[in-house]
Design goal:
Blueprint (H helix, E strand, L loop, with lengths): L1 H11 L9 H10 L8 E10 L4 E13 L3 E3 L1 H11 L2 H22 L4 E7 H4 L4 H11 L7 E6 L7 H13 L3 E7 L16 E4 L1 H4 L4 H16 L3 E4 L5 H9 L4 E2 L10 H10 L9
Parallel strand pairs: 2-4, 4-5, 5-6, 6-7, 7-8, 8-9
Antiparallel strand pairs: 1-2, 1-9, 2-3
Helix pairs in contact: 2-3, 4-6
The chain binds ligand C2E and magnesium ion (3 copies).
One magnesium ion binds next to strand 6.
């Protein structure tokens, strides 16, 4: 029976059975119903705005705690959720929790925009735009307090449809960021047509020390600014990297040196105590 289940799952996930790992099968099974069981929560990581010296935005990051599997990293479960289709349910739940955070931050007097990771497969689902529109309305927040952060694990296909879908989202007043720029599967040519508002430079760049890294970051920042995009530098872990991100002109900085991702209540409390001067600059 185990073998049959194994083969059936493997076939459904489009992989030859011999390449399936038991761990992946357990995750695949446990992901079904995880949202309904309340196992998916969202952490929020602050982004430091260089010009205003304040926290203007946060990134929403899914967290999953399962009774059998314990804490599972999104690095592990998101790709599986993309394959088995649970990503739609998880993505919408993270979007709901993000709108709730945006609403509560507004009420607390420290409003932040929440940037939600959306893979192309979720973006292109029928009903995606209607679903997020309804969630935004239910939370009575302005659409510019949420953004989507496009992530792509494969090279973009059906680019015209993706552009149309993104334009529909932009028309609602929602910003669109391109995640992991420079290491992801989206190439420079896509910048001609994708209706973006922002680029996120992958942390691999800031974490490479020396003149080559700085030249590449500086070039990406200037290019993005010339086409009217804001720039977020990810992976700021040290005072030195904070200084580089600032000096090379990134608009916002994100990383462990500023703050780690934290839960809804902790984030609201953290925002009220944040003082830019506490960020040491190397
Ligand atoms: P990402 O969107 O590029 O998110 C940034 C990741 O870098 C997060 O990992 C964050 O915790 C981590 N990070 C932040 N600052 C630093 C730093 O200074 N140094 C280092 N080394 N890492 C840092 P996390 O939360 O494990 O998420 C990993 C990836 O999983 C995300 O990468 C994103 O692609 C995906 N993901 C997370 N949440 C969601 C979600 O709700 N939906 C979808 N579709 N994908 C998600
Ligand atoms: Mg992201
Ligand atoms: Mg990223
Ligand atoms: Mg990444």
């Amino acid at each position: 029976a185990d073998t049959a289940m194994y083969r059936e799952k493997a076939a459904r996930m489009g992989a030859p059975a011999r390449f399936m790992h038991p761990r992946e099968l357990s995750i695949d099974t446990a992901l079904h119903g995880a949202v309904g069981r309340g196992e998916i929560t969202t952490h929020f990581q602050p982004q430091f705005d260089v010009r205003s010296n304040t926290i203007t935005d946060v990134e929403a990051l899914a967290r999953w705690r399962n009774p059998e599997l314990g804490d599972v990293s999104p690095v592990e479960f998101i790709p599986i959720a993309e394959k088995n289709g649970v990503i739609h349910e998880i993505g919408l739940e993270v979007f709901r929790q993000s709108c709730a955070l945006a609403r509560d931050s507004l009420a607390s007097g420290h409003p932040v925009a929440v940037s939600v990771n959306v893979p192309v497969i979720q973006l292109m689902e029928r009903g995606f735009v209607d679903a997020i529109t309804a969630v935004i309305a239910a939370h009575a927040i302005p659409a510019n307090l949420v953004k989507i952060e496009l992530t792509e694990s494969q090279h973009l296909t059906d680019v015209p449809q993706i552009i149309a879908r993104l334009q529909g989202i932009r028309d609602l007043g929602i910003g669109v960021s391109l995640d992991d720029f420079g290491t992801g599967n989206t190439s420079l040519i896509e910048l001609y047509d994708l209706p973006l508002t922002e680029l996120k430079i992958d942390r691999a760049f800031i974490q490479k020390d020396g003149p080559v890294g700085e030249a590449l970051i500086s070039g990406l920042v200037d290019m993005a600014h010339q086409i009217g995009l804001e720039v977020v530098a990810e992976g700021i872990e040290t005072p030195h990297q904070l200084e580089i991100g600032r000096r090379l002109g990134a608009d916002r900085l994100q990383g462990h040196h500023i703050a780690r991702p934290i839960g809804h209540d902790d984030l609201l409390a953290w925002l009220t105590h944040f003082v830019a001067g506490d960020l040491s600059v190397g």
